[in-house]
């Protein structure tokens, strides 16, 4: 494949990732604010973002820490929120099986909601892409995301106390996930998982330590698998 084609895939990924700047900036800044309010210093807050690089899990862990939740519950809750990353990896693996192991390792690190949502749709719509093109596209998707995630985590940690409550930065959390999930709800199993997760999260909101979210996630995955199995059996009859 020509270098020009690889470059064009990279730039396409970068262009597709640009809209996420609108939510990444307030999202990461908000995490910086919340993390410092929970007692982390600026360096610990940045390290949290660099090492974990999973916004939802980070917010979950920090919020539970602020509520003096037992450490084991904090860890289990963060892991449960991040179970979707295992699903993301399994989804991308067939497209990148020919990549070198260090390339797959970097993709694993860079697999976040934004890079997955864009790449999964791209790979599915253009199955003739080569491995090099797929890697280039994936890398391009990350360029507008990772640097800003790191940078504005620090900005939020340093200047969080100066941000007035009227700015309502917490709007970025649901908005970010709605922007990513909405376009992906294209099949009945996807819709089933979404509806079950919403109903279960509301129904189990009373469970201590936010464990209702774990229950909701589990029920949603089971419902989606059962729905997909039903559709497969129906198609064979």
TrEMBL record:
Primary localization class, coarse: membrane
Membrane topology: Multi-pass membrane protein
Keywords: Cell membrane, Membrane, Transmembrane, Transmembrane helix, Transport
Any Pfam family matching the protein: AzlC
Organism of this sequence: Cognatishimia coralii
Location(s), subcellular: Cell membrane
Transmembrane segments: 20-40, 47-66, 72-96, 135-160, 166-184, 213-231
Protein name as it appears in the record: AzlC family ABC transporter permease
Family to which the UniProt record says this protein belongs: Belongs to the AzlC family.
């Amino acid at each position: 494949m020509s270098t020009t084609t690889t470059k064009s895939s990279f730039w396409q990924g970068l262009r597709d990732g640009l809209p996420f700047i609108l939510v990444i900036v307030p999202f990461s800044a908000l995490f910086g604010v919340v993390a410092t309010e929970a007692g982390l210093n600026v360096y610990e807050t940045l390290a949290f973002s660099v090492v974990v690089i999973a916004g939802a899990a980070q917010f979950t862990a920090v919020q539970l820490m602020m509520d003096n939740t037992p450490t084991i519950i904090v860890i289990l809750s963060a892991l449960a929120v991040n179970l979707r990353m295992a699903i993301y990896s399994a989804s991308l693996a067939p497209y990148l099986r020919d990549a070198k192991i260090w390339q797959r390792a970097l993709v694993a690190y860079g697999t976040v909601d934004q890079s997955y949502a864009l790449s999964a749709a791209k790979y599915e719509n253009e199955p003739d892409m080569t491995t090099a093109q797929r890697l280039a596209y994936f890398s391009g998707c990350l360029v507008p995301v990772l640097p800003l995630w790191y940078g504005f985590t620090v900005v939020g940690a340093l200047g969080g106390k100066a941000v007035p409550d009227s700015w309502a930065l917490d709007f970025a959390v649901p908005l970010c996930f709605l922007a990513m999930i909405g376009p992906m709800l294209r099949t009945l199993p996807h819709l089933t998982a979404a509806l079950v997760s919403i109903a279960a999260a509301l129904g189990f909101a009373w469970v201590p330590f936010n464990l209702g979210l774990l229950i909701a996630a589990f029920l949603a995955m089971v419902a989606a698998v059962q729905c997909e199995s039903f559709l497969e059996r129906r198609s064979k009859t």
